[in-house]
Amino acid sequence: MVDVVGLYHNPPERAVVLCVDEKSQIQALDRSQPVLPMMPGMPERRTHDYHRNVITSLFAAFNIADGTVIGRLHRQHRAAEFKSSWSRSTRRCRPNWTSA
């Protein structure tokens, strides 16, 4: 763990360091009724039921050097989607890469 943190704090010269993460099974929900307006002294009220639309997966990469986040949503959560997101992230960082 110390090596990973050290890489983030002191990356090698001309290196691109990406922190990659994934979050699966994000539910896109809509309430079945609109939120009821607040009245003085009363909290906002919401219905307990909702409509489930889709489940999606988020793949994101954080570029340590410039603080940008490259994110992508996918309907499925497989290696193919991860690879697609990784390729997109590295393509976006490639202009900063120089060959040794």
Folded structure, characterized:
- This protein is α+β, with helices and mostly antiparallel strands and 100 residues long.
- It is built from two helices and three strands.
- It has helices at 2-9, 79-93, and strands at 18-31, 50-63, 69-74.
- A three-stranded antiparallel β-sheet has the order 1-2-3, with helices on one face.
- It is elongated and about 60 Å long.
Task: Summarize this structure briefly.
By secondary structure, the protein is α+β, with helices and mostly antiparallel strands.
The portion of residues forming beta strands comes to 25-35%
Principal-axes shape call? elongated
Strand order of the largest sheet: 1-2-3
Percent helix: 10-25%
Rounded Rg: 20 Å
Biggest sheet descriptor: 3 strands, antiparallel
Q: Tell me, rounded to a whole number, the average pLDDT.
A: 78
Structural class of the helix and strand makeup? alpha+beta
Question: Total helix count?
Answer: 2
- The helix/strand series, from N terminus to C terminus, equals HEEEH
Overall strand count: 3
What are the low-pLDDT stretches, counting only 5+ consecutive residues below 50? Answer: none
Distance between the termini: 27 Å
What are the key terms here?
single chain, 100 residues, alpha+beta, three-stranded antiparallel β-sheet
